[in-house]
Amino acid sequence: MRQYLDVKSRYPDAIVFFRLGDFYEMFYEDAVYVARVLDLTLTTRDKGKEDPVPMCGIPHHAARTYLARLTELGHRVALCEQLEDPRAVKGIVKRDVIRVVTPGVVLDEELLDPRTPSFVAAAAGDGRRGYGLAFLDVTTGDFRATEAATAEALLEEIGRVAPRELVLPRGQGQVQDQDGEALAALVRGAFPMLPRANVDGGGDAAAELAKALGAGFDARAAERAPRAADAAAAVLRYAGATQPGAELPVARLALYARADALVIDEQARRHLELAESLLDRRRAGSLLDVLDETKSAMGGRRLRAWLLFPSVDLDAIRRRHDAVERLVAAHGARDRARKLLGEMSDLERLVGRARLGVATPRDLAALGRSLALLPSLAAALAEAHAGELRGAAAGEVDLLRLGTDGQAPLGGALGAEIAAELLRVLRPDAPALTKDGGYVNAGVSAELDELRDVAAGGRDRIAAIEARERERTGIPSLKVRFNSVFGYYIEVTRAHLASVPADYRRKQTVANAERFVTAELGEFEQQVLTADERRIALELEIFAALRAKVAAVAEPLLALAGRVAVVDTLAALAEVAHRGGYCRPVVDDGGVVELADARHPVVERLAAAGSFVPNDIRLDPAAEQILIVSGPNMAGKSTLIRQVALAVIQAQMGGFVAARAARIGLCDRIFTRVGAGDNLARGESTFMVEMRETAKILRQATARSLIVLDEIGRGTSTYDGVSIAWAVGEHLHDKIGAKTLFATHYHELGALAETHPRVRNVSVAAREWKGEVVFLRKLVAGGASRSFGVEVAKLAGLPGTVIERARAILRTLEAEGAGGADVPRPVAPAHADDGPQLGLFGVATPALPAALREVPIDRLVDIVAALRGLDPDELSPRAAHDLLAALAKKLTPRS
Length: 895
Ligand SMILES: Nc1ncnc2c1ncn2[C@@H]1O[C@H](COP(=O)(O)OP(=O)(O)O)[C@@H](O)[C@H]1O
Ligand SMILES: [Mg+2]
Prior knowledge:
This protein has about 900 residues and is of the alpha/beta class. About 45% of the residues lie in helices and about 20% in strands. α6 packs across α8 (about 225-240), α11 (about 295-310) packs across α20 and α13 (about 330-340) packs across α20. The structure holds adenosine-5'-diphosphate (ADP) and magnesium ion. Adenosine-5'-diphosphate binds near residues 607, 631, 633, 634 and 635.
């Protein structure tokens, strides 16, 4: 128990799994808690004593499931193992923590999602000096850091990186930011479910990083980003402590600026359903789901990264397009490449595991097999590269070169060398466990082969001994056997006991037989056992050397793996482009976004084949800067405006676009804001949230940004809503100049175009046909002619009588109405205590505002009638005065 308490005192914030034989045991509060949440039986140690220790245990071989559940709950688990063979030591076996599994630092592949990175992140800094964010995937060594000037930007980047766990240095971030919030509180508020951990605040971050990364550390870059360096050092400190005794597989820190990638704010990521659907936060129904035709897990992770961090580098984007174009054209080569990629294991994680010293024989055998496929993959790519392209834009497509042909500095030769070595040494069916050996090929080590011969020769020897003893004793049924309790023995049935010679020593009596040992058997047994032990140890030795060999070249292997991941991603984008009939976009740094026959890649996929109606859209900061998109409910407004944003993201991530032709002027940021009405699922005080986010857009957007506004202003009264939407539109037009798509059911907004030259009205067409609404889904110039609300209501299944009544009311309203026939007149909100009253037009309308309720309705009608027939230009000042006085008098209650 003293040993346990010592370990626990060193890992106070972790649940300690204490290895006792075949079990991991937990004690004290750990036991009480874990027994409760994992539904284990709680027992006690030292029963009968005064203070029995609560304890619970799990079988060692089933630990993974429990680990998974505990880390999911946000806990850290310290694995305390036996460091010595209990059979070999007297007294207490030495034990210590060999690693700590945390929500963000996980090595067991069973606990990892192959297609998402597993980042542990750290944030540092404060509102005054700015913030830093760093994140590390220990399984691959992917390690990046950036800075954010504001808390808002920091939180957004955390959201985009989506770490599994966030580390905050102690004593840091106590300084409050402008809004008076310290870092920890900020993070807690924004990501309540994200597991958090603390780590000691460091001293000299740069020195720490230089020590850990060596040549892979760019001190100058870090000097320019001190907060990023702080965060990076904190991540290393935290992750390093989880692997006592092992070196973290981290060789390089990549510092990036947020502006290096297209900034997609959290709202946009959600509403555009990039990586998960809005409805159930699953992958199905997302753009990622449509695009992810990658064949390997590493490709899957890369594609995801490209999607969430699209590029803003024209050259880089075009190089990706070049490669995709070639792969689209080269069907056969693409198919072959994808097939090979599908046979590959996760090179990145395998190499990462080798470097961490946790790779198993099975892992390395898989690594060998995968690396051995590279020459064929390179050949398929070379073929795609050599293929004829009509109007080929591209010359050299470096992304399709794996370096196995000696072209690139990367070690294709190295890959082949390592592959050959792995395949030579390891059996193809190598097991995951090393304890029984059996994974090293014959012919690798002469000594090993000899030891195996002893074991195999053993079988012959047993047969020989058995035959000889039968002859000597004349007992035909005599058998030489083995069991784990007392090794080799001779069994003689009861009937022949009389013939047993004197040199047999009796060991055991069983039903119908007696068991004996002889000196010869004992000696033989010793030989075999020693040979076997030696064999297992030798295999382990050979394997450890092999793993070290891989670890030593982990960096170039990871670079190679990275290129394979890129190839897989490009091939996936090509496959999707080919199947979906996408086009290569022309990307330039002009501001125009122009799409011909554009579709929504996800909605199109879900719609019946061929039923999706494509549309042409053009946004141009110099002419069509703001498109006000109107149309009835269900017309397809939201779909249309989102598909423009998706096209920009797809183009800038390096993929093709769901359109016949596309021109994409590089965007720097994409924002979307969806009005409260379309966003009820979140159930928050929607209007406030909506306005805060709209404010953010107005603060951050530039002339290079793309803004998608869907029904904003909906969360308040109509008057407020129209006014806010109007003012936002004006600001975007006059002050910011960002390309904007503005879907709205406020037809009043159409009037913006009359006074603002770069505002255009368009609508998604619908027609009435025999009392039914027919959605044409075609974008046409001009505002919507009418809203078809009643028809949509009918479509939605409102009872016939209600529909008829609604039609009648609508007709009256339209006949009497003053404004555009389709404008439902804004009315003030009804008061709950008001019964229906006869409104201005002889139909039931919501109640009048309180100030008017005292006035008899007929007088109000008079006033309206008088005003309606009026031409102010015809009126003399005197007459106007008289009229006003008369009207005012009518408004006075009970006069
Ligand atoms: N261009 C289109 N072609 C075919 N179906 C479409 C198209 N656009 C939208 N739809 C379908 O119409 C439904 C309503 O579209 P949505 O964009 O939500 O309309 P709105 O925002 O105008 O209410 C969508 O669920 C989709 O299935
Ligand atoms: Mg909509």
